[in-house]
Design a protein that fits this description.
The complex is a heterodimer of chains A (133) and B (163).
Chain A: H1 2-28, E1 34-35, H2 42-45, H3 51-56, H4 59-74, H5 91-131
Chain B: H1 5-22, H2 25-28, H3 30-50, H4 52-60, H5 69-93, H6 98-101, E1 105-106, H7 110-133, H8 135-146, H9 149-162
Helix pairs in contact in B: 1-3, 5-7
The chains are: A mainly alpha (133), B mainly alpha (163).
Chain lengths: 133, 163
């Protein structure tokens, strides 16, 4: 049991170190960093802000707000949650189901291709071996 | 940690389906997506622990024989591990529920969101190849453990007809 726990710890430690390296790399290129709990970036406040406010904001604020607005669209709520936004019901679930099906289809296509390639490789190896005296 | 074939089969099937569902946050909602994928990390660790001896064995003999399917599997698994780690790290960085729940606020960023999407798509691709390379094992295990009752049922119905 101790051995298994140690192995699990090794796996998590390796993943953590890799993750940390990736995060540091991102940080080195000026990407996001963890903030203090009290800090409230403009982006968080921009959720639901009228489009006019967003357009008049400075470039830096717009970039921050853009990330949040993109999340809003990503969740299917749309800009400002108003009547012009996407409806949260219906299209939301349908979009998810459609994405799930398309991913499943993609996995199936790749799976079939890999299995066929492998079978072909095995068949060619066997026939090559059979051809030699 | 030695897992039985039946346990491995159900665990792998669960991971595969859970991964496909968690690839669609639009379906589950972002909050459930975050908590669900955080919980899935444990199943990945168990999956890797189940292959521990194979990883050590192939890792030790990696440079002895280059052209072998186990080397391809090893490299692919390594890519999968890297891609998965990237998905989890970038997922935590753009987290809206898990990290704020722990009292850590995160600055919104397109960069990590793109990295998250890219690494998730790469993971999906590698998972498909990974399953394809282990297809014989999957078919054998499914035949034996998921549909093991089928031949027995056929034999029983045949003997009943004969008698």
């Amino acid at each position: 049991m101790v051995r298994v726990a140690l192995r699990a710890f090794i796996i998590l430690a390796v993943a953590f170190l890799l993750g940390l390296a990736l995060y540091r790399l991102g940080q080195a290129y000026g990407q996001s960093r963890f903030l203090a709990p009290a800090a409230r970036p403009f982006g968080e406040r921009a959720v639901g802000a009228p489009a006019r406010d967003f357009m008049e904001a400075s470039g830096f604020d717009r970039r921050l707000a853009g990330a949040v607005l993109e999340r809003e669209r990503f969740e299917g709520r749309g800009f400002g949650r108003g009547p012009e936004g996407f409806g949260r019901e219906g299209r939301f679930v349908l979009r998810g189901l459609f994405g799930l099906m398309s991913n499943l289809l993609m996995v199936t296509v790749i799976l079939v291709a890999v299995v066929l390639l492998r079978k072909g490789w095995q068949w060619s190896m066997r026939s090559r071996r059979g051809a030699t005296p | 940690m030695r897992l039985g074939i039946r346990t491995k089969l159900w665990l792998d099937l669960f991971i595969f389906l859970a991964f496909l569902v968690s690839m669609q946050p639009a379906l589950t909602g972002v909050s459930l997506h975050e908590w669900f994928t955080t919980a899935i990390i444990a199943t990945f660790v168990v999956h890797i622990l189940g292959q521990w001896h194979w990883i050590l064995a192939v890792g030790r003999r990696f440079f002895h024989r280059w052209f072998h399917v186990s080397r391809l599997n090893f490299v692919l698994d390594l890519i999968l591990f890297l891609a998965m780690t990237t998905v989890f790290v970038s997922g935590f960085v753009i987290s809206r529920d898990v990290l704020p729940f722990l009292g850590i606020e995160v600055e919104p960023s397109f960069f990590w969101r793109r990295i998250h999407d890219l690494s998730a798509n790469l993971t999906l691709l590698v998972v498909a190849i990974h399953v394809g390379l282990h297809w014989d094992w999957v078919v054998g295990a499914v035949k034996r453990y998921a549909f093991g009752w089928w031949p027995r049922l056929r034999v029983r119905s045949k003997t009943q007809t004969v008698s």
